[in-house]
Amino acid sequence: MHEPFDMFAKGLIDACLDGYCTVSVEEPITTDPMFSDVVVEPPSNPARLARRGILGQLAREACVFEPYSKAPTLDDADRCLARVSLLRVARRVHYGLWLISPSAARTVIDEWRLEPRFDAIDGLYSSELRRAPRVIVLTELPRTRSTLMLRLMGRGAVLRDALADVDALPQRAWERQGVLRLLLQLKRELARMTETEAPPEEVVMRYREIARESDKIIRALRAEGRAEGIAEGITEGEARGALEGARAALRTLLASRGLELDARASELLATCDDVQRIHRWIARAATATSADNVFGD
Questions:
Q1: Tally of structural domains, the chain
Q2: Which residue segment(s) compose the domain that 252 sits in?
Q3: What is the pTM (predicted TM-score) of this model?
Q4: 282 and 163 both lie in a single domain
Q5: Region label for 68, one of left (φ > 0), alpha (ψ between -120 and 50) or beta (otherwise)
């Protein structure tokens, strides 16, 4: 997805962790256009990440963050797992997958039997299975400074509370500075994120007040056209090559795991024009013991 929300959410993660971790936004996984939203490599001294709230705590291990403007579905989770599986094979690093959801993603949580395993933090769901997806439910996060950068990805009351918290921060707070350059995208997205009700005028006013405090917003205005053009170009490229990219990715993953395609499986892959189905096959291939297990549907 390449919407203003996605650009803003990824920007928040980058603003929070940049300088503390290696952060790659829209990280290419194969030579074909297949991307993971935000890939994080932990630093050699992860103790420093304690200064960056919950996102910093989660970034103590290699992980991928995939923010969603609506609760992710099982198909969304399958696609993300497929991309992360390829990333693990390519780099020989175990990456955890975090899906960031504005509301309870019950289908994903129930299907994968995810549970709240972080005793001190509500809203974080994971499994004992290392390869299972993990979910951050923004509506369940406590209203604390440590969750602020995540809650700014929310909508409705979650977003309004987060904005009020930004407004109350000291002038030199790192969160405030990081948010400044992203205000333009957020302002444009505000109506959609609060689509269930009209955004209060006071919320809009807070955006304007914070924006006026720094010349960064002027640079953001000048950069807006370039950012939108880049996003549109990436979207067009993904659309053109998604199907062939997915086929190539599956072949690469199968070969790396020593699984051979027989004639039937090769024909299934070559004739399948449903990219979501191929993504499901990729997710299976990460743990399958034979090609038959992959193409069982």
A1: 2
A2: 240-294
A3: 0.64
A4: no
A5: beta
Same domain assignment for residues 135 and 183: yes
Q: pLDDT, tens digit, for every residue of 167-204?
A: 788 877 888 767 765 765 555 555 454 455 555 565 55
Name the token pair of 93.
């690093």
